[in-house]
Design goal:
The mean pLDDT is 94. The protein is an alpha+beta fold. It has helices at 11-24, 35-43; strands at 2-5, 52-56, 59-60.
Length: 65
């Protein structure tokens, strides 16, 4: 397993994992961020949050925010 900081190359992996989590918990109505606003929160010059993605090979297997 490898850990990667959330960055412009993997922000879509994090977004997709959060969408899947919301769907699996029947709470997709609570996840209202679009990809642009989500990326802005993590990648702005002063980010609102930070995250890590663990990878097994090339597949993200979870996230830490």
């Amino acid at each position: 397993m490898e850990l990667a900081r959330v960055n412009k190359e993997n922000i879509n992996d994090l977004y997709d994992l959060n969408v899947k989590l919301a769907e699996s918990e029947n709470q997709e109505h609570l996840f209202t961020a679009d990809r642009t606003s989500y990326a802005d929160a993590f990648l702005a010059s002063t980010p609102a949050c930070f995250g890590l993605l663990p990878y097994e090979g090339n597949q993200p297997i979870g996230f830490y925010i």
